[in-house]
TrEMBL record:
<protein>
    <recommendedName>
        <fullName>UBX domain-containing protein</fullName>
    </recommendedName>
</protein>
<dbReference type="Pfam" id="PF00789">
    <property type="entry name" value="UBX"/>
</dbReference>
<keyword id="KW-0175">Coiled coil</keyword>
<dbReference type="GO" id="GO:0005783">
    <property type="term" value="C:endoplasmic reticulum"/>
</dbReference>
<feature type="region of interest" description="Disordered">
    <location>
        <begin position="309"/>
        <end position="337"/>
    </location>
</feature>
<dbReference type="InterPro" id="IPR049483">
    <property type="entry name" value="FAF1_2-like_UAS"/>
</dbReference>
<dbReference type="GO" id="GO:0043130">
    <property type="term" value="F:ubiquitin binding"/>
</dbReference>
<dbReference type="Pfam" id="PF21021">
    <property type="entry name" value="FAF1"/>
</dbReference>
<dbReference type="InterPro" id="IPR029071">
    <property type="entry name" value="Ubiquitin-like_domsf"/>
</dbReference>
<dbReference type="InterPro" id="IPR036249">
    <property type="entry name" value="Thioredoxin-like_sf"/>
</dbReference>
<dbReference type="InterPro" id="IPR050730">
    <property type="entry name" value="UBX_domain-protein"/>
</dbReference>
<dbReference type="Pfam" id="PF14555">
    <property type="entry name" value="UBA_4"/>
</dbReference>
<dbReference type="GO" id="GO:0036503">
    <property type="term" value="P:ERAD pathway"/>
</dbReference>
<feature type="region of interest" description="Disordered">
    <location>
        <begin position="56"/>
        <end position="84"/>
    </location>
</feature>
<feature type="domain" description="UBX">
    <location>
        <begin position="359"/>
        <end position="433"/>
    </location>
</feature>
<dbReference type="InterPro" id="IPR001012">
    <property type="entry name" value="UBX_dom"/>
</dbReference>
<dbReference type="InterPro" id="IPR009060">
    <property type="entry name" value="UBA-like_sf"/>
</dbReference>
Length: 464
């Protein structure tokens, strides 16, 4: 029995959860279910509550194989000595006649001894309690590795019917291997043959499912009875056979110990001889898989093309919306700029309407060299500020064109802050005078007279 000590903490926890949820008290049954589903707790629990006929199908598979086993005494057998015996030359006719009485006596004696041995020697003691085949499979592997080491052909970790089901589903050959501890050849066969590197590679490369068991256990004993095994070690090769409705059938029986090369040769020959059905089914499955994959690829290509078209349409729509948003923003900015320019012109007219009269005395006389090359002289009273200089320069084009302003009802625009687009400074040394409320009389370089240069800010940016 599989010891709980060999399970890790996670596996023990899953085992407890499984028994709690499913109310299965039999430890081996619960352990077998979890082993079958590779310790996937959810799938194992789902299996318990699913109303399926999986067990019935597995029994039908066992009956399929059993129906192909010939009756006792008529079963074709391959043994380790068959090849050597068939190679011997047949004796001459005269020698056969002379030896016939001795041969007859020997056959009668051998038959009597064989019958007596079968009566006297009972079959191996079989454990009566039915145990879960999956647990038995795990125990078989653990016992084998404990006795012969971890390097061996890969054994199927499940029941006999489960191995048949997998072989049928995956279209693979299945090798049934039975041995008995009461036979002297068992230890040598397990140690020398089943651990041979050549056989390990052959089984792996051919993808053969190997189900093995000790006939002392109930599962293996039942299989030995089904396959009518009489000599151990016993091997049976099973595969799908038939044309219209393929069924699992025994295609080769190998009884007795043999060397790895002999076993490989016999299995390989049997697979070549009976592999037509499996190969045909594999080709059909591959063809269906290719057709299915082709449809999947076509659907994927269509979906990818549709996705690309949708992406192009989405990008085009986004670009259209972006262009539309840009146009709307451009129009909005243009409208804001026009409104800003209207307010600017209104503010300049407001400054023009409120431009003070030029004083006659007690004033500063300033000579302006404008950005357009014009020169103008203007007098400012002692209360004038630097900001008044900027206002004069701003409205000078209107003064030049219209003379003194006659309008008085011009109002300043609301929600508007005027920004002068020029700078006033002295020619040399250069001294800039930004707009401020500082009086001219307090600036020595401007009072009582000075020459000032008006420079557009745009020209300064271009020079930089």
């Amino acid at each position: 029995m599989v010891s709980l000590d060999t399970l890790n903490a996670e596996q023990q926890d899953k085992l407890k959860q499984y028994q709690t949820i499913t109310q299965i008290q039999d430890l081996e049954e619960a352990l077998g279910q979890l082993i079958e589903y590779n310790w996937n707790l959810e799938r194992a629990i789902q299996h318990v509550y699913e109303n399926t006929s999986k067990e019935n199908k597995r029994k039908e598979l066992e009956q399929e194989v059993a129906s192909t086993v010939p009756a006792a005494g008529a079963a074709p057998r391959s043994t380790a000595t068959s090849a050597s015996s068939s190679a011997r030359k047949k004796p001459s006719l005269l020698l056969s006649i002379l030896l016939w009485p001795f041969g007859m006596a020997w056959n009668i004696t051998w038959s009597i001894l064989s019958l007596a041995s079968r009566i006297i020697m009972a079959r191996p003691v079989i454990q009566e309690r039915k145990r879960d085949p999956r647990v038995l499979a795990v125990e078989f592997v653990e016992t084998f590795e404990r006795n012969y080491g971890p390097r061996h052909i890969e054994f199927f970790r499940g029941g006999y019917s489960q191995a048949l089901e997998k072989a049928r589903k995956d279209l693979r050959f299945m090798l049934v291997l039975l041995h008995s501890d009461d036979h002297d050849d068992t230890e040598a066969f397990c140690r020398d043959t089943l651990t041979a590197e050549r056989l390990i590679n052959f089984i792996r490369d051919k993808k053969i499912i190997v189900w093995a068991g000790n006939v002392r256990e109930t599962e293996a004993h039942k299989v030995s009875h089904t396959l009518k095994a009489s000599t151990y070690p016993f091997m049976s090769l099973v595969a799908l056979q038939g044309t219209s409705t393929p069924r699992m059938a025994v295609i080769e029986r190998i009884e007795g110990t043999c060397h790895p090369e002999e076993l490989i040769s016999q299995i390989d020959i049997a697979m070549d001889r009976h592999g037509a059905v499996v190969n045909r089914l594999l080709n059909e499955r591959q063809q269906r898989e290719m057709e299915r994959q082709l449809m999947v690829d076509q659907d994927a290509a269509f979906n990818e093309s549709l996705k690309q078209d949708q992406e192009k349409a989405r990008l085009a729509e986004e670009e259209k919306q972006r262009q539309q948003a840009m146009e709307e923003e451009k129009m909005r900015q243009q409208q804001l700029a026009e409104l800003q320019e209207q307010k600017r012109q209104q503010y300049i007219r407001y400054l023009f309407a409120h431009l003070p009269q030029e004083p006659k005395s007690n004033c500063a006389r300033l000579n302006f060299r404008l950005a357009n090359g014009d020169r103008v002289i203007r007098q400012f009273d002692q209360n004038a500020t630097v900001d008044d200089l900027y206002r004069f320069v701003e409205v000078y084009p209107l003064v030049k064109e219209h003379g003194p302003c006659m309008e008085e009802n011009v109002e300043a625009p609301t929600s508007y802050t005027h920004v002068y687009k020029f700078t006033i400074h002295t020619p040399y040394p250069r001294m800039e005078f930004p707009p401020s409320l500082q009086k001219l009389v307090d600036i020595k370089s401007l009072w009582p007279s000075a020459t000032l240069v008006v420079e557009d800010d745009a020209d300064q940016e271009n020079e930089e």
